Amino acid sequence: TILGVARMSRRHLCCAGDSRAVRNPPRTFDVTRKIFTACLGTETNSFSPIPTGLKLFERTMLVRGGAHGDRPGVFALPLILWKQRAEALGWTVVESVAAFAMPAGDTTRATHEALRDEILGDLARALPVDAVLLNLHGAMIADGYPDAEGDLLTRVRALVGPGVVVGAELDLHCHPPHAKVDAATAIVIYKEYPHVDVTERAEELWRIVEGTLAGRIRPTMALHDCRMLGIFPTTREPVRSFVDRMSALEGKNGILSVSLGHGFPWGDTPEVGMRVLVVADGDRARAEALAATLGREVWAMRETMSPPFLGIESAIDRIAGHDGPRPLVLADAADNPGIGAAGDSTFLLRRLIERGIGGVAIAPFYDRGAT
Q1: SS3 per-residue string spanning 68-106
Q2: CB of 210 within 8 A of CB of 249?
Q3: Which residue in 121, 213, 319, 360 has its CB near the most CB atoms, within 10 A?
Q4: pTM of the model
Q5: DSSP per residue, 195-235
Q6: Can you list the alpha helix ranges (DSSP code H) found in the chain?
Q7: Mapping DSSP to helix (H, G, I), strand (E, B) and coil, where does residue 167 land?
Q8: How many angstroms separate the CA atoms of 79 and 56, rounded?
Q9: pLDDT tens across 344-368, in order?
């Protein structure tokens, strides 16, 4: 994740065969159009004892009215790109709240409802609009809302009606359930992990939204549930070639976008898991068929997609037998604050002590009592 953030900053800038067709706007628009944008999201680790409240959003990113400053956060980049594209066409842009929190436990009900309702209030005041573009994570869980961003999308659709284009960009580690797909005109998911393609996916979504507004395309979406759960870096084979295949399918035979939502294994929600999402131009059957085909391909390579994770004993064996000049880095993949965990696991430390392994620096630990 850190690598992805650094690279993006330098640039500056899913039940088998199951699907949902989404609304296609039959409207004729004026030359001058109004676009509404907002951001709300976090990657919820349901097993963390640390709740996500408003202060965590404030420390990460909580911006109103597009006041991102000279060094915008990564999660602001899609909003900035959409504004640039719209203003280049002479369109009006209304930017609402841009709220994002680093991963932690479930978002408090009061925090989710406050940020959601602020966005909805801004949208109500901005009506009528021709399109709504939302930068979301897709794995946000709040108290009482197992699909918090689906809750927002559903309310946005109810507010704007069936004739307005609603687009959303999601993180690769999203939960892409039907509530999101039912409410949106088009959804685009990051293709890369580490996440180095945030602005490219924002551009992809913009092309779909602009083409829909112009009447050139009529997006319809299909999901295929791969019935898998895990961590699958796209820099490794066979996932690398699969992502390249997804990209190669776009722009041909009526296929507008192909995504693979990996899911977030530490999100305790009924919708957790990996899903293929296909956006096609007016042909639901084509979208369903391709999603199912790709989903079966993912299932067929399931044994080779994950990195070779080691158990604690095997990892310590590697350390004990290491005599090279460079240090070894041993990472606990689950108790990782970068994915919202508390950083309070001492299993690895215990075994290092019991096996007499020295020369070790270990961090972080979050345990107020022990401290």
Answers
A1: CCCCCCHHHHHHHHHHHHHHHCCCEEEEEEEEEEEEECC
A2: no
A3: 213
A4: 0.88
A5: ---HHHHHHHHHHHHHHHHTTS--EEEEEEE----S---TT
A6: 2-11, 54-60, 77-88, 109-126, 148-160, 178-183, 198-213, 239-249, 284-300, 302-305, 312-320, 347-354
A7: strand
A8: 21
A9: 888 999 999 999 998 889 888 887 6
